[in-house]
Amino acid sequence: MVLLNSGLPTSFQRAKPHAKLVLFLTLSRKMSSQPSPTFSSNYSPEQGTKDLSPLLKANGGKWVLTESGKGVERSFKFKTFKKTWEFMNIVAAECAVKKHHPEWSNVYNTTFIRWTTHSPPGLSEKDVLMARFCDEKSGECGELEVEEGKEGDMGRGLADRVAAEGADCCVPKKKSG
């Protein structure tokens, strides 16, 4: 028991076994509700985990996994619409180079970006590279820090609607005749 209690607050160490069990079960439930990354078939899970880890909020980054675990997403906020548009233009130019695009939305000075790969489905190396690129370029464009919990879901909702309508954008088309 000494090993289990080391580093824990004294109040927890003195707690009755039942209280410890309740806390353990609560934490387990919360942890299990966190999605795990699902990598595309052409991206090894070992390499993907190594590349993705520093970008995630849980590890000090700013990105979160999508509910399905097949993508990463976050919001970017800038001082003005012009700065936001500048950032989006930089990202769009890199998308053309990499031949990869995000699911994204923009409302005034905030841009929501989700990186996911439709074919083959899951998180791909391009998604991780582009997420890292966005982090670098957002800093150069003067990204503002947003208070935790104030990111807003409007951008996510807009991106969800657009992605649902254009979901087959990356699926190879069958050649007719």
Structural account:
With 177 residues, this protein is of the alpha+beta class. It contains 7 helices and 5 strands. Strands 1, 2, 3, 4 and 5 form a 5-stranded antiparallel β-sheet that branches. Strand 1 (64-65) and strand 2 (71-77) form a beta hairpin. Helix 5 (81-98) packs antiparallel against helix 6 (125-140). The protein is globular, with a radius of gyration of 20 Å.
Structural class: alpha+beta
Q: Which segments are poorly predicted (pLDDT under 50) over 5 or more consecutive residues?
A: 1-6, 20-32
Helix content: 40-55%
Order of helices and strands: HHHHEEHEEEHH
**What share of the residues does DSSP label as strand, in percent?**
5-15%
The main pleated sheet reads as: 5 strands, antiparallel
Give the N-terminus to C-terminus distance in angstroms. 71 Å
Please tell me how large the radius of gyration is.
20 Å
Overall shape: it is globular
- Rounded average pLDDT: 80
Q: What is the β-strand count? A: 5
Count of individual helical segments: 7
Can you give keywords for this protein?
14% strand; 177 residues; 5 strands; single chain
